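Researcher: We plan to redesign the surface later, but first we want a full-length starting point. Tokens attached.
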């Protein structure tokens, strides 16, 4: 787990370095994208639960139960499973889930209660213009490619783990027996709509971004060396 968490930290660092120098409209209190529709892996959930333990914020997990019956995005494929299908020229149908309109249960007064440990999906949701003014994020296409690649790497690091909606993954790992099984590397079956993670076999990088992506991939090597 220490090696996996170190790799996750390195992936977050790579994102921060990539975003450095880009003018972003995101700031504390700007919570338009903090919805119920966030997806993440068990590794990211494990780090959040560790953070809550350290900050005596485990009562925040009670908020999740109140969100468990609300409509929210439930993924049908992990990002690496999607990449494999695309590489194999398989037909991909658009996921027809109704997105929940509620706010993230970990949001308090328009601020993230686990900001230091927030998952990659939250870290990558950046915009050069205020989403509240436009109704959508304005993102550099290369940054979007970087985001996809980093999400692929997180799933790869968390092989043997699961992916799903933030609420569902956190509720799953909040159960001590599930968390213990995960910590010990035991096989944890998918449950409540959670999906098994896949190894990274093909990168989702368009041709025009392959050259600028090279230094990003190189910076990921130290973290990946420990878990590949």
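Model: Full-length starting sequence:
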């Amino acid at each position: 787990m220490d090696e996996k968490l170190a790799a996750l930290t390195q992936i977050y660092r790579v994102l921060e370095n990539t975003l450095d120098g880009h003018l972003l409209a995101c700031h504390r209190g700007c919570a338009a994208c903090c919805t119920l529709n966030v997806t993440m892996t068990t590794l990211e959930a494990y780090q959040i639960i560790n953070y809550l333990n350290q900050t005596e914020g485990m009562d925040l997990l009670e908020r999740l139960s109140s969100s468990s019956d609300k409509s929210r995005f439930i993924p049908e494929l992990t990002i690496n499973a999607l990449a494999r299908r695309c590489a194999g020229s398989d037909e991909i149908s658009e996921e027809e889930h109704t997105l929940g309109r509620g706010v993230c249960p970990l949001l308090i007064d328009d601020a993230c209660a686990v900001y230091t440990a927030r998952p990659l999906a939250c870290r990558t949701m950046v915009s050069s213009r205020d989403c509240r003014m436009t109704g959508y994020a304005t993102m550099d296409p290369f940054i979007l490619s970087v985001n996809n690649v980093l999400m692929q790497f997180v799933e790869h690091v968390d092989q043997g783990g699961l992916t799903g909606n933030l609420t569902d993954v956190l509720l799953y790992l909040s159960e001590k027996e599930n968390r213990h099984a995960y910590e010990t590397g035991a096989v944890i079956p998918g449950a409540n709509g959670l999906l098994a993670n896949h190894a990274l076999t093909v990168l989702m990088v368009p041709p025009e971004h392959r050259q600028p992506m090279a230094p990003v991939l190189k910076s990921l090597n130290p973290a990946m060396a420990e878990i590949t």
